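Quick entry, no commentary yet.
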Amino acid sequence: QQQRQWEGKEGNQNNGSTADLFPQNGETTEHDIATRVDDAPVGHESMPLPPDVSFGPLIFEARRFVELRKKSFKEQFMSTESFGMGLFYTLNVFFQQFYLGTQRLQLENKGDTNNSYADFGNVVVAFAFVTIPIIGWLLDKKGYGITLGTINALAVLTSVLQALPVLWIQSLTLVTWMISRFFMYSSYFAIFGALFGFRNFGKLVAID
């Protein structure tokens, strides 16, 4: 009992809403906790955000997504968010994979006779993991709109560099292509889970 009272006092000091969600005047079950959090105005997103978070886009997205997660599978699938995500990733995946399949041929046409640039392209994709902190920062701190815009901008930059008939520039093409491709696949599952929740996650991803 003393431990529960101490936790209650500490919670009240750290977060003014803690006492409302988890009163200390009796036994609180896990079901009670889940019910109170789910009934909060914006669900789990009602908790305070860190001071370095972009307030505007993340708050807007969080509140919009809470309502979307409550919908049925059919409603989620027919939503504008599902259509927009499907269109965005379909177009980007087509471009990224098309370049992957024609990469060696395109480089040869630009003068890569010994396939050194093609070999570089095979190696550089293994180092995509070094960009994990960047995509994580974009998703967590800048919101999904800015993240998708960044992915699209990288894809456009890749296509512009790819169109230039200068062989040494293709090393930059390979790097920007690697980053945009990694960002695309990393963001896909993260944003789908945040948008629609995990009740229909598998079915939505499979259909999309």
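second:
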Amino acid sequence: NYGYFLRNGSTAFQADQTELILRMALTEFKKNEDWFGYYTTLCNLGKCECKLGRLKEADKNLEEAYDRLKTYGFHHLHIVLTNLGISKLLSGNGQEAEMYLNKSFLFSSNAMPKIYNQINLALVKLYQKRNTEAYDMLLSLKPEVDKFSFDRVKQKYYLNLSAAAYASNQESDSILGFLMISEQHPDRNSEKFTMERISLIRKNLTEKI
């Protein structure tokens, strides 16, 4: 099915190009009356719109995708719920973000989505200035994260652990250690952002000392 080819291939592009490809996929799915394909793609579009900063559109599309995908069972719900949680967080609604992410955790069936979910929940706590809670939550994940051979988990984990450690006033040596590991695992989609965040935390840490 050409719609699935477009949807699955869209992840290889930048967000603005991804959006165009996903909209083409939506047209294909609608033409073929493949509504499961349509609403899973709408979920991906909502995530893309979050990256582009179009949060109202993202919320609308993600809420519609969640409402419709519920009729197909639980298998894909953790994905749309996670995207909804992130969208709500970016919109400044920490309470709703936490609600959706907690729901997502219930529908996550294996270790990797659960760890991503807990990282996102910790970010909500950081947004709410619950810095020590965020740090403790992230630190508790470290043994599981270190077991993963997938670099993507460490890319997401160690930078956020460093930020939470700094925000909760942990010891400088611990923070610097987390930053060193984060440097070894820069975000594959935005290595520049990773290095800028690391430099900023190091600079602020030096100024505090």
